[in-house]
């Protein structure tokens, strides 16, 4: 992958990751009447939304320790799920929190793997196994 493309991709991830976090907050705390659903199970929606957000954050903020990104996203999932108690027409469910947290951790892992391939010399690439390590 060419360097200008790689840098553009990482810059885009750095901009889009925080926007996705804002989207998660908005979509978690809007009233039920405002929701537009995909047709998939709610837990699948949670998993995919957090997985995409986490992957973008892992790519865009590759120098951040992965445990901090993971802890922040899991905490966000808990806060947003608990906050739904006070949103008209919404419910707070443990299974939705588990789906969100799982999506965040899977997305973080996928993002770090991709980062290791895109940005040699980062902490992610040093942690990734090489052919010699296998």
UniProtKB/TrEMBL annotation:
Residues spanning the membrane: 12-31, 43-62, 69-87, 93-115
InterPro entries per the UniProt record, alphabetical: VanZ-like (IPR006976)
UniProt keyword terms in alphabetical order: Membrane, Transmembrane, Transmembrane helix
This protein's record includes keyword Membrane: yes
Domain called VanZ-like: residue spans: 41-114
Descriptive protein name: VanZ-like domain-containing protein
Lineage of producing organism: Bacteria, Pseudomonadati, Pseudomonadota, Alphaproteobacteria, Hyphomicrobiales
């Amino acid at each position: 992958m060419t360097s200008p493309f790689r840098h553009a991709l990482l810059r885009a991830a750095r901009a889009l990751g925080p926007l996705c976090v804002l989207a998660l907050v908005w979509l978690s705390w809007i009233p039920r009447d405002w929701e537009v659903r995909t047709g998939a199970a709610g837990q699948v929606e949670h998993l995919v939304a957090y997985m995409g957000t986490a992957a973008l954050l892992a790519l865009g903020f590759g120098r951040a320790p992965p445990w901090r990104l993971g802890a922040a996203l899991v905490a966000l999932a808990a806060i947003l799920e608990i906050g739904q108690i006070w949103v008209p027409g919404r419910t707070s469910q443990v299974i939705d929190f588990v789906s969100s947290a799982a999506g965040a951790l899977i997305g973080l892992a996928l993002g770090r793997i991709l980062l290791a391939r895109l940005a040699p010399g980062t902490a992610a690439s040093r942690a990734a196994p090489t052919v010699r390590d296998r």
